[in-house]
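Data availability (excerpt). The following record was deposited with the supplementary files.
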Amino acid sequence: PYFTKRVVIMGPESTGKSTLTKKLATHYGTDYVEEYGRTYTEISGTDNLTALDFENIAIGHQKLVLEKLKEGNKVLFVDTEAITTNIFGKMYLGEDFDSLVIGEIIFKQYFDLYLLMDVDVPWVDDGTRDFPHARKEHFNRIKAELDAKKIQYVVISGDYQERFAQAVKEVDKLGYLY
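Predicted structure:
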């Protein structure tokens, strides 16, 4: 697990994170971790989310990442992470939302490469998304959190083919992964 390169694809809803995560895993012949928040809310819905729900999402997602790391692949692609979960908590529950549990996960999580998806693709209503008009604000909040934590990231933009090409270029910089 120590030698596995970790790449996180993060950003607001409906920016192609899940599709890009899967496509990169296929391209590099490796595995990925799905966005646990989507799995969780497909069961529970988003109408009555609580602070505990967001903590459970962050814990569940981190558990999936740690399980996949044990497999020892050269690279692991991860769809979303705890910073994004925390910001979603604020979006759903209000700005006073704060979680020591999620804060601890943010502090401990590590990725070799952060790919931040821009909002320059159309929003698609897949039945699980709630913030079509807040994508730019959400993007800016994620970017501000990464900047505040001095985490280097690459903004991925353009159409879906351009996004894939940009992502491959950045992942290839991590070293030999095939």
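Summary of structural features: The mean pLDDT is 91.
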